[in-house]
Amino acid sequence: MSEVKPRRRSLAAELTPDVREVLEILDKGKGEALVVLDMREVSGFTDFMVLCSGRSEPHVRALADAVQKQRRDQGSKPAHIEGRAEGTWILMDYFEIIVHVFTNQNREFYQLERLWRDAPLLEWKAEASPSA
Total structural domains in the chain? Predict the structure, then answer.
């Protein structure tokens, strides 16, 4: 059986400033394997999902804390946060953006990129950042 891969598309021009901000925060915090799923065509509950891996539970918490702090400083509070205490998968729901920060083990286990494989995917790299 062949592996099903997510649809890859150039989303960089379509990303909102808020999505770019989240990606830049995670990139600055040395988040790994940053990707964005464009959920606009496949879901009614959010526009974009940002996925990121951290090297350890403290790193996952630090990445999530950095996103939450900077977004709060910009006047944006998440509607919901899950997983902060465990630190293996933290979900932050900002309505139009859902941010998932995982340990590598949990990201591999849950495979959200595979679950949402119908959503176009953008792999974020530092050079894709407008500030780079």
Answer: 1
Written as tens digits, the pLDDT of the chain (132 aa) is 445 455 555 566 789 999 999 999 999 999 999 999 999 999 999 999 999 999 999 999 999 999 999 999 999 999 999 999 999 999 999 999 999 999 999 999 999 999 999 999 998 876 544 443
d(CA 113, CA 87): 20
Which residues are within 8 A (CB) of 22 and not within 5 positions of it... i.e. 6 or more apart? 50, 67, 71, 97, 99
Residue 11 included in any domain: no
51 lies in some domain: yes
Structural domain of 91: 16-124
Q: From edge to edge, which strands make up the β-sheet containing 32-38?
A: 80-82, 89-93, 97-103, 48-54, 32-38, 121-123
pTM of the predicted model, to two decimals? 0.86
The vertex-108 CA angle with 107 and 110, nearest 5°, equals 65
Structure tokens that stand for 78 in this block: 């998440």
Cβ count near 57 (within 10 Å): 14
Residue 100 CA to residue 81 CA, distance in Å, equals 10
